[in-house]
Amino acid sequence: MITSTTGPQPADFADVRATNLAVVLRFVREHAPCSRADIAASTGLNKATVSSLVADLIDRRLVRETGLTENRVGRPATMLVLDGSPYAAIGVEINVDYVSAVATDLAGQRLLTWRRSFSGGDSVNQGVAGVGAIIRRVVGRMAKEERQILGLAVAVPGLVDVQGTVRLAPNLGWRDADLGGDLAKALRDPGFPIQVDNDANLAALAEQRFGAHAGASDLIYLTGEVGVGAGIILDGRLRRGGLGYSGEIGHVQLDPEGPECHCGRRGCLEAMAGIGAVLRRIPPPAEIQVEIEECARLARAGDAGTLATLESAGRSLGQGVSILANLLNPEVVILGGYYVPLAPWLLPAVQEELSDRVVASAAGGCQVVASTLGHDAAALGGAARVLDSVDSGRLPGGLSRIP
């Protein structure tokens, strides 16, 4: 979740009420159970305004009352918690051989988690048709539960510009695809917003809202799929760069004489520490999971060749992480995807490289850990992005503000 070190503050926008509804909703999300008096004291809004805003949020079924508490000085107070039972946020990740879908309620509780095999076909149109069919099933399930869809965010492994156009997704064979527009047509203008973003960006949002380091202001997520990308959160905000292409750490060159990378250069981080380097080849997508499990089995059994390969990959990965630590000084770097099951053998070498290469003492306070969110991180991050939009003021029920 996008947070501020000063806490939520009422903003001075033309639509003050819409802005302050979002302020109150964020406060309840972060501090529930809480009272109207708690909200007024922390936000600076007066009590009458808070009472009016809370009544509006209750009418929208975004907040509900949950009884009285007497564990405070003075009269018992009616406590508030998130409701959101009529709503759902949907996140979808498109990968080389699968599509993951996650739906959550307003509080982030999972309503549905699906993973389906996927073949992108020979064109973007065929890929959109396949993804659209899966999304329609998710939307249908939510409709049966009488939930209004707050929005859909789709994660793609590739370059996605700030308008949401997929400029290049090499592993899918997509280029210059208006994925959001194409999906809206495939879903026959579904009536909810569709956003598209890079998979690492959305996975970073998932970690910040739901992961073991939730709330971290400076966090980097490294994908561990066929490619290696970085989702970067600094000062509590996702950083996409000028055109949206930030985070391509996988194509930072570590060794000009190193192995050839599919981008055409040699010695890129992805070529030296990606899954292809660990497995000594890039197998067909359907075989990657099986080969990763076999690699972990051999490592547990003490196979010397496997351990040496993992140490080498870990050292290269540590070099890449050290560059990030020196440049950005994150609190935590989180390894995701296929790195997670291999983390027990990768992390020691990564930590050694950090100690040797980061200028600041104690690696500048940077921790490197394995994700606890699994392969659904990017899809879950899609749902998180939708919830971020609600937190920013795009509320259901007619009164909204585009941040």
TrEMBL record:
Positions of the HTH marR-type domain: 24-65
Pfam entry (one): ROK
CDD domains xrefs: ASKHA_ATPase_ROK_BsXylR-like (cd24076)
InterPro entries reported in the protein's UniProt record: ATPase_NBD, HTH_MarR-typ, ROK, WH-like_DNA-bd_sf, WH_DNA-bd_sf
SUPFAM superfamilies xref list: Actin-like ATPase domain, Winged helix' DNA-binding domain
Family in the record: Belongs to the ROK (NagC/XylR) family.
Annotated protein name in UniProt: ROK family protein
